[in-house]
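User: Can you predict the 3D structure for this chain?
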Amino acid sequence: SGVSARRTVCLLLLIMILGGYLRFHDIQERGPSFYDEGIYTLEGRWVSSFSEALVSGLKRKIEEVRSGQNLYSFDEEARRFQEDLEGAPPVWGRPGFSLLTACCMSILGPKVFATHGVSAFFGTLSILGVFLLGRAMYNEEVGLLAALLLAISGYHLVYSVTGLADGSAMF
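Assistant: Here is the predicted structure, written as structure tokens:
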């Protein structure tokens, strides 16, 4: 019925707000706690700066084509491109997480906590996923209970607040 559906949506929304709060609270205060977090942050920064340098170079090329003059030499552009790169190229086998971190950095800026933001985002979304799974397998009450338990689960919180790729992989 309409009342039951509204009640379920409201409860799920409250559970997701609680879960999101637990995952995002003081996120800007977090720094890398594990070696891997630092690596993923550096890889994300490299992907982000690579994208920024590529866009910047393309804008200069468009300017050059519009003017009809050779404004920039290849060596000059290559040097500028290399100087604009920050971080470390992705080599740890989690390029998807590095790309997601770069996307987060494009929104938040080159912040250390961007990797934590990716994990917190997917950790919060997984609460919705668990609700949908519980509802599909049993009923809405089971889905809500499962979502609440995941929202406050210490184990899930640990992976949702660290900048490790494992949190988004669980999603």
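The mean pLDDT is 91. The chain is about 75% helix and 0% strand.
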